[in-house]
Write a structure and sequence with these properties.
The chain has a single domain, classed as P-loop containing nucleotide triphosphate hydrolases (Rossmann fold), CATH 3.40.50.300. By secondary structure, it is α/β, with parallel strands linked by helices. The two termini are about 20 Å apart. About 35% of the residues lie in helices and about 30% in strands. About 40% of the residues are buried. The strands form two sheets. The chain has a six-stranded mixed beta sheet, with helices on both faces. The chain has a four-stranded antiparallel beta sheet with strand order 2-1-4-5, with helices on one face.
Length: about 220
């Protein structure tokens, strides 16, 4: 499903160059649940941005669903993101002035669905994460765990093959974090590929495999269960 080959990323700031990724290579099969770990500055955020088609590599190749992402235009990258990828962020990134239902509808607007279908799919997805009774509430009217469920529903509404979760429990208490990880397990069992970007060992232990980055390179990559 996903192939990364000798991926490198260099950021330039005047005369200073920072090599965030240094020839990273790996594959991810459809249906895997993987954790990408590493300390601050290891390159994991840069890698997530490239995997999510939010940025392009300086060199190397990235294939998603057999398409060479490294050569696409901004317009095509946006299309790929909307079709294949669901994002879940630590800060939730919800729109504060729109209802939960409208937040989850947003990706479907970009996909060009008409209003009745958008509303139906968003409602069904919120019910799937246990928030069917909160459709018309605003983000500031629900708990942090519920906001993360909304973020997961928004990531799921286009039925993406790849879910990228960046520190998905970082703002949650331990009990709520376990509940959220339970949702990711359910999604993975339903066939979604899940990539967790985290520095927390307890979160990484939920994955089947860990890719550990250090100084822009893969220090180790192993199956843990």
């Amino acid at each position: 499903m996903l192939l990364v080959n000798k991926l490198a990323k260099i950021y330039s700031n005047g005369e200073i160059e920072v090599q965030a990724l240094k020839g990273v290579s790996f594959e991810i099969e459809q249906g895997e649940m993987i954790a990408i770990m590493g300390p601050s500055g290891s390159g994991k955020s840069t890698l997530m941005h490239i995997l999510g088609c939010l940025d392009l590599p300086s060199s190397g190749q990235y294939f998603l669903e057999n398409e060479d992402i490294s050569k696409l235009s901004e317009e095509k990258l946006a299309e790929i993101r909307n079709r294949y990828i669901g994002f879940v962020f630590q800060q939730f990134n919800l729109l504060g002035r729109t209802t939960i239902l409208q937040n989850v509808e947003t990706p479907l607007i970009y996909a060009g669905l008409e209003k009745n279908k958008r509303r139906m799919f968003a409602r069904e997805t919120l019910e799937r994460v246990g928030l069917g009774h909160r459709l018309h509430h605003f983000p500031n009217e629900i708990s942090g765990g519920q906001r993360q469920r909304v973020a997961i529903a928004r990531a799921l509404v286009n039925n993406p093959s790849l879910i990228l979760a960046d520190e998905p429990t970082g703002n949650l208490d331990s009990k709520t974090g376990k509940d959220i990880m339970g949702i990711f397990h359910e999604l993975n069992e339903q066939g979604h590929t899940v990539v967790l970007v985290t520095h927390e060992e307890e979160i990484a232990e939920h994955a089947q495999r860990i890719i550990y980055l250090m100084d822009g390179m893969i220090k180790w990559d192993e199956v843990i269960k």
